[in-house]
Amino acid sequence: MFLNSKRIIEEGDLVLIWISRTVIRPVYLKKDEALQTKFGHFLHNDMIGRPFGSQISATQGRGFVHVLAPTPELWALSLPHRTQIVYSPDSSYIIHRLQIRPDSKVVEAGTGSGALTHALARAVGTDGTIFTYEYHEDRHMQAVKEFKDHELSDIITCTHRNVCEDGFQIEKPTLATAVFLDLPAPWTAIPKLFEGEILNRKEAVHICCFSPCIEQVSKTVKVLEEHGFQSIEMVENQAKRWEGHESMVRSVDEALDVLRDVRKRRNMGIERRKRKRLVSEVEAEQSEEDKKLLRGDYDNPVVYNPWGKGERVKEGDDGYKWAPVSTIEPEIKNHTSYLTFALLPPLQD
Amino acid sequence: MSRISEGDYVFMQLPSGNHKIVRIVADSLIVLGKFGSVSANTLVNLPFYETYDIISKTEVRKIAAEPADDLETSAESGINDVLTMEGNKIQYHGNQTLSMSEIEQFKQSGLKGDALIKKIQEAHQDFDKKTEFSKAKYLKRKKAKYMHTFCPLPMTCDRLLDLYIDKDPARVLGMDPATLAHMLSLANVRPGGRYLIMDESPSVLTTAILERLGNKGCVVIAHENEHPNLDGLKYFPQWMPSDDFEGENPMVRLINLLDLFCPEETLPFVEKDADSLKGTQKTQYLRQLYRENQRLWVRKQCELGFDAVIVLSTLNLVDIVPRLLEFAAGSTPLVVYSDARENLVNLTLALKKDLRVLAPTIMETRLRKFQTLPGRMHPTMTAKGYSGVLLHGIRVLPDSAAVAVGMAAQRKKRKIEPAENTVQT
């Protein structure tokens, strides 16, 4: 599911239906069932047997969706936000700096929405383990169910626990080499890492604490130092999303021509009104034909419109000049959290 | 990986904040420039992550590590500092009574490390008038210059990238660690995956992926030159592809663009009976056979489709990316790095017309480092400038018969569907 390279969609598979950039829906495929979206009605039968990534048309002919294989990133996008999630620019850097490798053992508290847990599980693979702790019971239950549904239960061990009070110890030793703390008071959890066989002290242990406030960082740094952590470093990761577009190239000469055209037509208007007066003055004696002749052909002048003003012009349409540009998303993630990293050297025997 | 072994490449952190990669070759001398030199044999079996003082070429002593910000001792004196500063004027020059040549003489007479720094400190006329903070800063500067210490760290891709960023950022196309990390996640890199990549850096991207693969999966490097740039890979001998026809399933496989895009131009391979050949002829033949098998393997994988296409190249992206897309399986990620956003804008526009990539998006990630002294926390005053950005999207299999909702109906009735749907990205 999340950990294989399956190419063909089968009944029972979890797929992510890409409806639009903002609407991605997780669906378990079942024969003879259908998916109703605002873009149409889609039959599961039309998806089963096709390759992942296929574009599927709605039954009524118009409208389509793409059927995608789940990845931690797509899954995070499809989540109804139960808690603030750790977004991919942060989660990717955390995994990188924590030196997480296939077969690593990782401690994570709390589980939250499970978005980071999925990314961690992908990184450690079937030879590693993620020990994740969540103090909120509903969230814990939800996560347990989700990891089971996603066939990740063998990799992820969930514990319902307030680690700041009750520590990390479970029946088996966790012996982790990487720790991620996304807690309101990580400094109360750090000493608990040294109770029981939580850390693998034969190897270097990397830790990351994720806190939104600088005061939290201050307290965390102090406690990390007291417990022998080195190379303490705090960073903030700012991510921006850009989109590529085409912007119409509107030249000054064209602008001048527009003004010339307006001036010309205004003059024509004055002229026409003059003639109209003339026409009405002599109206009685004139036939319809002669009236038209007197007015001249000023009634429906062609307007010079080089940029398709008032028309429905789509980006990149022929007949106009375009330049490539990038536009930033309207609202950026200005601050997610501070990431405090540190390293605990191995104990020497 | 907790102790140094013979044959390792080791990343040496030096007091100046610089680093050096050294190889532990038995009976050789490891030279750390002005920070001294030490025999490789002395380093073997030494634990990583500790700081060592060089006593002599054959003796090192473990010392307490210097914290990254070693000024925190004076952190709480921040407010007092302001008071001491009033009424105490410190001249900028001429406080140090020792001349450079005198310091050199001390060094030659065998004085070094802490003792030498103490001497220099004593010779500073106004040292006591300095604020606590600036005293600590002064000593830190002197330590960076005169201490004979080092801290050995295991080689990782992260450290390799740091090294290139310091030495010559152009070689890694100005790529920063956060962007590299983001590429790996967006490309869904995981143990066992098979990836088609172009890597114009000295294999930094390659090693980053290999670290995530463990010993399952494969990286196929499509290279534009006859030989790929594998400079950085030499620090990770376990992954170096060999030409000595060993290893049935190497994790790094190579193919040049001509063999990839124009297989019909590849010279036909003539099979021979290896046993009938002798000496260099046999070696040469086996090497050719090995290469031919690699090529066939890659071609087969091209048909099956890769788990992601990852591109770090200065070739015209609008040109190369659509060609590589052919080898990506459905629903797999496309990730492209460039050191200029403009390149990716052009690529986005091309991909929007291509329809094989869903929602091409440009991402920019920037790290901001902070000084972490309690009560003195702020972003560092200067940082390296990076312009690297990446484009990501998902390879999809378009159906030419599919029609977006509202594409034809839109003229009759305005706004029958939200705008985004009329173009159904």
Automatic annotation (TrEMBL), chain A:
Organism: Starmerella bacillaris (Yeast)
Major location category of this protein: nucleus
Record-annotated tRNA (adenine(58)-N(1))-methyltransferase catalytic subunit TRM61 C-terminal domain positions: 63-343
One GO term describing the cellular component: nucleus
EC number(s) reported in the record: 2.1.1.220
GO molecular function, one term: tRNA (adenine(58)-N1)-methyltransferase activity
KW Nucleus (keyword) present: yes
Any GO BP annotation: tRNA methylation
A Pfam family the protein falls into: GCD14
Record's keyword annotation contains Nucleus: yes
Keywords, comma-separated and alphabetical: Methyltransferase, Nucleus, S-adenosyl-L-methionine, Transferase, tRNA processing
Protein localization: Nucleus
Leading EC class: transferase
Entry function: Catalytic subunit of tRNA (adenine-N(1)-)-methyltransferase, which catalyzes the formation of N(1)-methyladenine at position 58 (m1A58) in initiator methionyl-tRNA.
Protein family (similarity comment): Belongs to the class I-like SAM-binding methyltransferase superfamily. TRM61 family.
Chain positions recorded as S-adenosyl-L-methionine binding sites: 113-116, 134, 182
Domain of life the protein comes from: Eukaryota
Name this protein carries in UniProt: tRNA (adenine(58)-N(1))-methyltransferase catalytic subunit TRM61
Reactions it catalyzes: adenosine(58) in tRNA + S-adenosyl-L-methionine = N(1)-methyladenosine(58) in tRNA + S-adenosyl-L-homocysteine + H(+)
TrEMBL record, chain B:
Keyword tRNA processing applies: yes
Main location (coarse class): nucleus
Compartment(s): Nucleus
GO biological process: tRNA methylation
Listed Pfam families: Gcd10p
Protein keywords: Methyltransferase, Nucleus, Transferase, tRNA processing
GO molecular function, one term: methyltransferase activity
Domain of life, per lineage: Eukaryota
Name of protein: tRNA (adenine(58)-N(1))-methyltransferase non-catalytic subunit TRM6
